[in-house]
Amino acid sequence: MVWDTLVGQRRAVEALRSAAAGHGMSQAFLFTGPPGSGRSNAAVAFAAALECEEQPPGCGTCHSCHTVLAGSHADVTVVRTDRLSIGVDEVRDLVRRSALAPMGRRWQVMIVEDADRLTDQAANALLKAIEEPTDRTVWMLCAPTVEDLLPTIRSRCRMVTLTTPSVDEVAEFLSRADDIAPALASYCARASQGHIGRARALARDEGARNRRKEVVSIPSRLTSLIACMNAAQNLVETTQEEADAITGELDTRERGDLDASYGVVERGRRPREYAPALAALERAQRTRAKRRHLDVVDRGLMDLVSVYRDAIVLATSPGQPLVNEEIRHDVEQVVRGASAELNLRRIGWIFDAREQMLDFNVPVPLALESLMVALKAPSR
After folding, report:
1. Measured distance CA(379)–CA(130) in Å, rounded
2. DSSP label at residue 109
3. Which of 70, 86, 128, 180 reaches 20 to 30 Å from 321, CA-CA?
4. What predicted TM-score, i.e. pTM, was given to this entire model?
5. Domain spanning 2-161: which CATH class is it, in words?
6. End-to-end CA distance of the chain
């Protein structure tokens, strides 16, 4: 079934199944939920059910389901961005495509991931299309919260709210879907804090697990100013290396495709139109690399939050399970060195650093250095 990847989302699945069967169908849907809850997966699964050739819809095995899930269905368009925002030109092109009749017999489905990244102009262009959709077009927008979109857009969408799955649900999914050993599945489920994609990445990549272990060990080591500066520098370097590894192969492939399309390899020379195309590609790649680095840093900061969250839990409710059970000794050290109130303020400082980097474009090294100094253990 196409719903199998939606972990811990029983109520949402029931609503989507009913809509796909024709009960409560709408021309626009807004999928909201915390990171890792599966907003995009839910939208794609719903699109597959809408295009499904079988009854009840959403079999997961017919040709339409298979092509939607593989990302190759002619009538399902998924817009995802590697940039910091989605611009008006991209949305206008999407609106023009949405007005076309579907090639098949069912729906023209337009999925916008990261709809919260729409610029004001792009959001206004999208609003007009949602207000006046064609009879066989369905819009699906994905965002963390309803407040991330214009009120005029969200008022015209049917809401589909997803929740963070439990640790047990994520661990069971890893064991069932990816054949992960129970002990490793349990660790990855806890470490990801219910983020399905992060849990699968940790389960499949020992390097990712080692990088996380390095990050969660930081709080217990922030005992001096030099330790703070070293921790910030190490975090900058490791996150940059991880981001470069992710984008490097894609950059090389895109450059090769560009060279091939302009005949650079075969002709041994560059036509006049090649230079501006190359400049545009390099600008896009730099933007993507910046966002990727910010995403990796952001993930590391959430791992830091989990340590201070554990310290608060250990200080106030000792019997509760910890996210970082495997470093309980380090967490106990953090508890001994600060009150629960201070650790709560530390979590606030981490979120302030995230805002500085993501919203105010503060350089990553500067933001992390300031953060690590703020997190330093109090002098005795």
Report:
1. 57
2. E
3. 180
4. 0.84
5. alpha beta
6. 59
